[in-house]
Specification:
With 328 residues, this protein is mainly β. A five-stranded mixed beta sheet has the order 2-6-5-4-3, with no helix packed on it. Strands 7-11-10-9-8 form a five-stranded mixed beta sheet, with no helix packed on it. Strands 12, 13, 14, 15 and 16 form a five-stranded antiparallel beta sheet that branches. It has strands spanning 3-10, 13-14, 24-28, 31-35, 50-53, 58-61, 65-66, 76-80, 83-90, 96-104, 109-114, 123-124, 127-130, 134-142, 145-154, 159-162, 177-181, 184-191, 195-203, 208-212, 215-216, 226-230, 233-237, 240-242, 253-254, 258-262, 267-270, 288-294, 297-306, 312-323. 0% of the residues lie in helices and 52% in strands.
Length: 328
């Protein structure tokens, strides 16, 4: 299949967010922005926006103004151009949220874009991804159960687009993988009361959902893993493969493996992803993760998360795939 890669652990200095899980990260250029999360289960830590400079490996707290979002967990972020978009999550009273905020990285200003009846219903532990124009939101834990709806916020038209809801085969789920590849929006695995191992895509041109049969070295069923789409590949790292009886209060069994799905051949491959120095993030889930560039190569940034011992983590790793074949 032509995909391997390696992890590198990044050093940290400055005012770091510290250990946390169920938080979110987005990259703009060589800066990573982190928001939300918990250290104690279900208790949001703070509502600071932390910036991490990938060049000098230093953390800063943004001197933010405007409509600053309240603290939350199970929140998502994505960037389009120089703007970061934050959606949903759960507040300290465990209420599901549906506000969409933007953060302009050139002015350090927050703005509340939509809330209430505008846009997707309230949710947490959903998934987002983005292309050059739209931020896509799928699934998550809603007020009345797990969701399987797909929405997009068009940053040019400044409006929400509601797509057809996924069919019965694509169950409502929390913690799924979501990625854009080959012009389609892919939903990978997730948790519907049990860990899932199905793969679906939505074709925005045809406006239809398709369930696909994948082959190869398939990952075991899982949720709350880290996902990134690069070229024709969807990379999946870690996640919860056996949920805790305590729900969000405890850690289940986590994976530390990394897989790639070729969206053309629908073939999975488990990757040899150890660095020469042996650096590897190991088993974890509930991480903050995002696509970005480091040392000129596009890859996956993973920050923090929950460990098998139920400890919150504070380390940062960057995975750079080596695409031997044409990954476009």
């Amino acid at each position: 299949m032509g995909a391997q890669g390696a992890w590198i652990k990044l050093g940290q200095k400055g005012i770091a967010p510290g250990a946390r899980s169920s938080h979110a990260v987005a990259l703009v250029g060589q800066k990573a922005y982190v928001f939300g999360g918990e250290f104690t289960p279900r208790v949001p830590v703070d509502n600071n926006l932390y910036m991490f400079d990938l060049n000098d490996l230093t953390w800063y707290v943004a001197d933010a103004t405007g409509d600053i979002p309240p603290p939350r967990v199970g929140v998502t972020m994505a960037s389009v151009g120089g703007t970061i978009y934050v959606f949903g999550g759960r507040d300290a009273t465990h209420k599901e949220l549906n506000e969409l905020y933007s953060f302009d990285t050139s002015t350090n200003k927050w703005a509340l874009i939509s809330s209430g009846d505008t846009g997707p219903p309230h949710r947490s532990y959903h998934s987002v991804t983005a292309d050059d124009r739209r931020v896509y939101v799928f699934g998550g834990c809603g007020v009345a159960g797990r969701l399987n709806d797909l929405w997009a916020y068009d940053v040019i038209d400044q409006m929400w687009v509601k797509y057809p809801v996924a069919g019965e085969n694509c169950k409502g789920r929390g913690g799924p993988g979501l990625a854009v590849a080959q012009g389609k929006i892919w939903v990978v695995y997730g948790f519907s009361g049990v860990e899932l191992d199905d793969v679906h895509f939505f074709d925005p041109v045809e406006e239809k959902w398709v369930e696909v049969e994948t082959t190869g070295e398939k990952p075991t069923p899982r949720s709350v893993f880290s996902t990134v789409g690069i070229g024709k590949y969807i990379f999946v790292y870690g996640g919860e493969v056996d949920p805790s009886d305590l729900g969000h209060l405890g850690a289940g069994k986590f994976s530390g493996e990394l897989y790639a799905l070729d969206t053309q051949t629908l073939l999975w491959k488990r990757l040899d992803d150890k660095s020469e120095s042996g650096e590897h993030p190991g088993p974890r889930g509930w991480c903050a993760f995002a696509a970005g560039q480091h040392d000129g190569s596009k890859g996956l940034l993973v920050y923090g998360g929950n460990s098998p011992s139920n400890d919150r983590l504070d380390d940062i790793f960057f995975f750079t795939p080596c695409l031997v074949s044409d990954g476009k």
